[in-house]
Design a protein that fits this description.
The chain is an alpha/beta fold. The chain has 15 helices and ten strands. The relative contact order is 0.13. The structure holds zinc ion.
Length: 367
């Protein structure tokens, strides 16, 4: 009986429903959801691959350069109604660094920023940036994918091993090579005291005296790269869709680490993209499945673009079991409004576990 519910309780009950309705109205209809899979290589028939995708409900492939360059792969994808996105790494480039080690991003200690397999190119190198932009342009011109999925578009950080209890102050901040220091001083109008000679001294002074200007300037280095790549690929193919891989951190995590460490300003990046995809690999960063939804929501509040979380399918980095129940919950959390769908990382990992293939199909059918 409505009149027996106290007014305040009615208001309290209505707020979550109202929020849900707004979020649901802003997210694409269920039949427009992107159900994607990252795929890096495939041995065997593409026809059978895409038939399996049609059967499961996967409508979009996020594909390696090798697959996008394969005419048969692209033709079969089109014939099966599968959209193709080229996964395009930007500042992670071990080949370029092996060839020219002096391209490396420099950490606050004055050393090349490296942690296990993670090493990044300094984002201020004009020649490198130009080469990457032209490579994107050429790939789109030659292979005409439906989209480009810009990856490693950030500053150096091995976020895959950053766990919830990590001290934010211990996260890496780069790049402090002489070019970045020169550009920062010139563009931000800040002069590093001439008495400071070593990189650690200069880095410490910047981080203590001008942390906000430094973060802002570093975010612009990343945003401008997205702008340049987007412009080039849209010149080649005006209807191409641009996706950006985001670190899976909310705005406040790790003392603002999304901008302070990774240099990803979601609102600014949104101007040059069509969709955003946080790499919400919950299990490997020691987070529970609902965390996938919380990150999606946090990003959604900063953008007008669809946000499509990418989720982990198999075990990675940690030995801990990633079972069916956890996988189910992760998929369900990823699909909750305001999500625009889900992207599996990866197809290879999914087919390695046939029970997860069946479960994924079951969840999508229920959905
Ligand atoms: Zn640099």
């Amino acid at each position: 009986m409505l009149h027996k519910i106290p007014l305040m309780r009615l208001i309290r009950l209505s707020i979550p429903i109202l929020i849900f309705c707004i979020l649901a109205a802003c997210s694409p209809a269920a039949d427009e959801q992107m159900i994607g899979a990252k795929i890096y290589e495939h041995n065997g028939s593409y026809d059978l691959l895409f038939e399996a995708w049609n059967d499961l409900g996967i409508n979009t492939g996020f594909c390696s350069q090798e697959l996008i360059s394969d005419q048969d792969f692209m033709r079969q994808a089109r014939d099966h109604g599968i959209s193709t996105y080229l996964i395009f790494p930007v500042f992670f480039n071990p080949e370029a660094l092996a060839h020219s080690p002096d391209l490396a991003a420099i950490d606050r200690g004055g050393f090349a920023a490296v942690e296990e397999w993670v090493e990044f190119v300094c984002p201020s190198r004009e020649e490198y940036r130009h080469e990457i932009v032209e490579k994107a342009r050429q790939m789109v011109r030659e292979h005409a994918p439906d989209g480009i999925s810009i990856d490693f578009i950030r500053h150096f950080v091995y976020w895959e091993k950053v766990y919830p209890d990590r001290d934010p102050a211990s996260l890496p901040v780069s790049c402090f090579d002489s070019l970045c220091l020169d550009h920062f001083q010139h563009e931000a109008g800040i002069k590093i005291p001439p008495s400071l000679i070593t990189v650690p001294d200069k880095a410490e002074w910047i981080l203590l005296s001008h942390p906000e200007e430094w973060t802002q300037w570093r975010c612009e280095l990343i945003t401008s790269m997205v702008e340049e790549i987007s412009r080039a690929v849209r010149e080649e193919k005006p209807d191409i869709l641009v996706n950006i891989h985001l670190v899976p951190w909310s705005e406040k995590d790790f003392d603002g680490g999304r901008m302070r460490v990774a240099g990803q300003d979601v609102a600014a990046l949104s101007k040059y993209a069509d969709l955003l995809s946080p790499m919400t690999y919950a299990h490997m960063v020691k987070q529970p499945p609902p965390w996938v939804h919380s990150i999606t929501e946090d990003i959604f509040l900063k953008t007008t673009l669809p946000v499509i979380p990418s989720i982990q399918v198999g075990r990675a980095y940690l030995d801990k079991e990633f079972g069916l129940a956890e996988f189910r919950e992760t998929v369900e959390e990823a699909l909750l409004a305001p999500s625009g769908g889900v992207i599996l990382w990866s197809w290879e990992r999914l087919i390695a576990e046939p029970k997860k293939v069946e479960l994924f199909k079951e969840i999508l059918e229920e959905y």
